[in-house]
Amino acid sequence: MFGKLLKNDLKAQWQSVSSIFLVILIISSAAELFMAVSKSQIALVLGGLVVTMLMLFACFVIIIAVAMMFSKTLFGRAGYLTLTLPVKTEKLIWSKTLSGLIWTYAVYVLFFGAMFLWLYQIGDVMGADYKDMADQLFTLLFGKSISTLVASLVYYLVWFGILMFAAVQCMYLGITCSNVKPVSSLGIVGAVVIALAAMGAVITMTGIVTKGIPVGMVVSLDSLVFTSNISETIHNTENFLYSFNFAGPLFTLLLSVFINIPITYLVKNKVNVK
Amino acid sequence: MAIITVEGLTKSYGKKTVLNDMSFTLPTGQVIGLFGPNGCGKTTLMKILTGLIHDYSGTVLIDGNAPGEKTKSMTAYLPEQTFVHDWMRNIDAINYFNDFFGDFDKAKALEMVSRFGLDPKQKTKTMSKGMQEKLLLSLTMSRQADLYILDEPMGGVDPASRSGILNFIMENYAQKSTMLISTHLINDLEDIFSHTLFIGNGRVLVNDSVQSLTAGGKSIEDIFKEVFSNVW
Questions:
Q1: For chains A and B, what is the number of CB pairs under 8 angstroms?
Q2: What is the residue extent of each domain of chain B?
Q3: Does A1 share its domain with A133?
């Protein structure tokens, strides 16, 4: 039954996010064309800025689209169907969480991917200094060997996915609370305040709890080491680039999973479909 | 045997108490008319029975179970307003029901949709209220449910189509099931009811079989007028 829920939620959300994907595709193609024909540095920088702003707008819109879909299908008139399905509320909420996460994540990964591509593409036009700077940034983020590149990519994608998961959960918590008395009287403001407060609490608690847990990965220019003592490993590593702490992402993931409990409880016991 | 048991049910919206310590049982296998003036709590009662409203006090049981996953699988609910998602075409709505309701008969739904002259590929949000109601009716009546709860099933349908739709409902519901129908169109539906529940001022005013109510020669509409002229 969960598979059917997820399939239908993905399909429903695709209806609203497909236009965003289309906008990204059109903008990226236009930018590619623009950069291919343009020789001026100013035009490239301005073009890049416009693309960045539009992409950021798309990232904002996807969040709104996912939030609206959650609100409409549970608390709007479609809730008459969704909440009379013979399925457990837990499954209903998890399905909406995963589908919201998948689409949001896809748009954000596309955005960052496009940004990286753009930064690299303009290297030839911007000159040697710029290219050196871009190379340095790339090395700083991903190292030089294939293993450090892959490990860094995986780490960034997973960490980013966990952050998105936490954000979606906090957003859903805010929306759900705004449909329960007395927060309902505050409307959308209540939803935003609760979502931001929940996200703040997740980040703060993660910082406090994982401060003394040094489990993670140390990356140098050519190698990576998994360790239970990050600072000691850094001390013993030549050409050290950066370190990743695993405790933070794992604890954020755990907290985000727990946010599902109050959402489910409220939908199951407190929310009335209007 | 009772399909619905309600004891001490109270539900308020702010300071207004809509259902006030209401208690009743409804028998299995009957077509039950739920009557009452506007705002008397008919829709609220139906939403409680289908598990859409939670903040009430008292006990509500459907076939011995509180509203939840089990009762939802045995109850086919037709709310007053359109409930299919905006993005759906008629065929998507049929597939959606087919995915989630084990008692849903897809072939029957397709046949009903075609009988109503609806295009399976048409988007539901582009259809008129009457057409949407026909789709929802097709979806609801294609289930072989133990309990049908229909909230104003013909509110948006033109008078010419009503008798056809009424026949349609009566032909297609699972014969051993119970059907609870709220309506203001007492005249149009009078013949199909075997039991009635009148509610007003938050309380049950009449809960009796049609046979016993109309034994004196009065119609249900006459009794409705009599009961509610005293209450309102």
A1: 65
A2: 2-231
A3: yes
| Residue span of the structural domain in which A235 resides | 143-274
Within 10 angstroms of residue A22's Cβ, the number of other Cβ atoms is 10
The model's pLDDT over B94-150, given as tens digits with 9 standing for 90+, comes to: 999 999 998 999 998 998 889 888 898 999 888 888 888 889 988 998 999 999 999
Which residues of chain B are within 8 Å of residue A84 when distances are taken between CB atoms? Answer: 50-52, 72, 75, 77
- The position carrying tokens 């000159």 is A127
CB proximity A84 to B under 8 Å: yes
Query: Cβ of A269 and B53 within 8 Å?
Result: no
B84 interaction partners in chain A (CB closer than 8 Å): 78, 81
The answer to whether the Cβ–Cβ distance between B51 and A78 falls below 8 Å is: no
Dmax of chain A from CA atoms? 63
Q: So what's the ipTM on this one?
A: 0.85
What is each CA distance from A214 to A178, A226, B170, B222, in whole angstroms? Answer: 38, 11, 70, 80
Instruction: Look at the domain B2-231 and name its fold.
Output: Rossmann fold (3.40.50)
Q: Domain ends where: A142, A162, A189? A: A142
Condensed to tens digits (0 to 9), the pLDDT of residues B17-65 reads 999 999 999 999 889 999 988 888 999 999 999 999 888 999 999 999 9
Please name the residues in contact with A160: beta carbons below 8 A apart, sequence gap of 6 or more: A105, A108, A109
Q: Cα(first)–Cα(last) distance of chain A, in Å?
A: 26
The whole-model pTM stands at 0.83
Question: Which chain B residues contact residue A8 at CB under 8 A?
Answer: 96, 99
Whether residue A154 is found in the same domain as residue A173: yes
**Same-domain status, A138 and A149:** no
- Are residue A37 and residue A166 in the same domain, yes or no? no
Looking at CA atoms only, how far is residue A112 from chain B in angstroms? 30
Q: Do B54 and A271 touch (CB under 8 A)?
A: yes
Question: Is there a single domain that holds both residue A121 and residue A162?
Answer: no
